[in-house]
């Protein structure tokens, strides 16, 4: 089928799929923000003294990011109406595995924290609350692999901050005391940079998509 | 293909799907899990009334599902294609492609 109607339908189908990506797999500016927050949390948490003000900032970062992300998706990227992406089965299965992993870790962490001989303090409760909050956040909002990694890091950094710690940054004395943890957490700033670059690319695609939508609409009403 | 069988193929096209506005609605819905009315209105260039009328026909034919609710005080209409709708659209495209392939060249197409 190569008539104008078919060409228009093909373009409409492509456009719908591209637009729908901003409901789930594409974050655009939200990814840029998430990457920037992850870098900030990693560097500030590892290099600055853990003052009460910094603790509040680190705890608020993941919540602020999730809210900003939802706002951007609904009010900016999908302002013409929500179109939910049709994720392939493999992506849906991966997402469910992520949720199951988070719940499993939350159960294990809860057991580890509550089985300590000392009584729990406010920091411990904050830690557990954030660890458990991650499960519904992953289920509802962090549905792409990059979203999951960055979101998980932000929540984990917030949770350990509640308990009075932060993840060590390579090259610091804290990293020398715990090299495996410092090596493991170095992936988060690296992923954050990838996330920022991906976000910029997605945002540029969105600007092009907006032009395509305008052209299609003009063609329809002409 | 002989002329009568071509006519038969054309007559066999699903009329519920064949109408351009309804075809457009189905094409959009087939590429997403769920679509809000506003997006369809935006990309189709159709008026609310026209779109609603076609939606109702597709819903009555069992090709789409329409969910009406409220977001705050604003009415919200969400649509999704059914399995029957997906099948009808795939069948339609297949049949139309076959018909188009069998059509004789017109002077315009011969030139190109």
Structure write-up:
Chain B: Keywords: DNA-binding. Chain B: This is DNA-binding transcriptional regulator, MarR family. Chain B: Residues 22-99 form the Winged helix DNA-binding domain. The complex is a heterodimer of chains A (222) and B (112). Chain A has helices at residues 4-20, 29-47, 52-77, 89-114, 122-140, 145-162, 173-177, 179-185, 187-221, and one strand at residues 83-84. Chain A has 222 residues and is an all-alpha fold. Chain A has a domain at 8-85 and 145-221. In chain A, helix 2 packs parallel to helix 6. Chain A starts with a helix and ends with a helix. Chain B is α+β, with helices and mostly antiparallel strands and 112 residues long. Chain B has a single domain, classed as Arc Repressor Mutant, subunit A, CATH 1.10.10.10. A three-stranded antiparallel sheet of chain B has the order 1-3-2. The mean pLDDT of chain B is 84.
Write a compact overview of the structure shown.
Chain A is mostly helical.
How is the secondary structure organized here?
The complex is a heterodimer of chains A (222) and B (112).
Chain A: H1 4-20, H2 29-47, H3 52-77, E1 83-84, H4 89-114, H5 122-140, H6 145-162, H7 173-177, H8 179-185, H9 187-221
Chain B: H1 3-11, H2 15-18, H3 20-29, E1 34-36, H4 37-44, H5 48-60, E2 64-71, E3 74-81, H6 83-102, H7 107-111
Antiparallel strand pairs in B: 1-3, 2-3
Could you name the key traits of this structure?
heterodimer, A: 222 residues, mainly alpha, 9 helices, 77% helix, 1% strand, elongated, B: 112 residues, alpha+beta, Arc Repressor Mutant, subunit A, 3-stranded antiparallel beta sheet, 7 helices, 3 strands
CATH fold type of chain B: Arc Repressor Mutant, subunit A
Q: Largest sheet of chain A, if any?
A: none
Task: Report the major sheet of chain B.
Answer: 3 strands, antiparallel
Shape of chain B: elongated
Mean pLDDT of chain B: 84
What class, by secondary structure content of chain A? mainly alpha
Q: Which oligomeric form is depicted?
A: heterodimer
Q: What would you call the shape of chain A? A: elongated
End-to-end separation of chain A? 22 Å
Backbone structural class of chain B: alpha+beta
Biggest sheet, spatial arrangement of strands of chain B: 1-3-2
Helix coverage percent of residues of chain B? 55-70%
Distance between the termini of chain B: 23 Å
Name of the CATH superfamily of chain B: Winged helix-like DNA-binding domain superfamily/Winged helix DNA-binding domain
Tell me the fraction of residues in β-strands of chain A, as a range.
under 5%
Summarize the helix and strand pattern of chain B as letters.
HHHEHHEEHH
Order of helices and strands of chain A: HHHEHHHHHH
Most extensive contact: A-B, 27 and 27 residues
Low-confidence stretches of chain B: none
Integer average pLDDT of chain A? 91
